[in-house]
Predict the 3D structure of the following.
Amino acid sequence: MTYRTEQDHWRRRDIADAASGYSRSRTRVVVYANVSDGDQDRIRTYLAAQAGARDWTIAAACIDVGPTALPLHQRPGWREAAKLLATDTANGGADGLIARSTAQIADTERDREELRSQLDEAHAFAVYLDDEPLTRVPPARREPFRVGAAVVDTTRSKVAKILAVNGECLVLSRPVGDPWDALVTWCRPATLREALSLTAIRGTDGDNGPEVHP
């Protein structure tokens, strides 16, 4: 593996970890929307709240406003977003972007291909909220959570260990950062791979790690 290829490999792994909530550092994202006049404040607030729920830091909110969608290279908001995605976070850039849908950015096949190319070259991830599947388990089918088990807080896209169960509320923690509360309906059991990823960043604090159920 050449030096450049190895760099790309680790950069891609770091971005994948960031998108999944496994990163040691706060994930930086660009909020992007292409909206009609008058909707920009509402959409910006909504996207910012979604980023905050995932414990992501907003590098910038890039909003294009207009009655019709322009090609990507003609939108000033997208040009700013693309520049941040191509810039390393140490220099003020972003790991990925969050938007309502793919169509908000690219509504033609040509633009979609350009979008995929830009994200790939920048090694950046993208989260499209309207395209995310609904994965909540009906209460009747949900098994009770236990202290010590590993779960995924879907509102933050983070794997965590259960410290306490208080009725419909869980107290969750990770090896880094402060504990937080999450509703049971927000959470699902972690897969084996997700649970092991939490153990991998545990370090040497003496904890035996989360309970893992294959």
Notes: The beta strands are 28-35, 57-65, 96-99, 125-128, 150-153, 158-166, 169-173, 180-183, 187-189. The first helix runs from residue 3 to 20. The chain is about 30% helix and 25% strand. The longest strand covers residues 57-65.
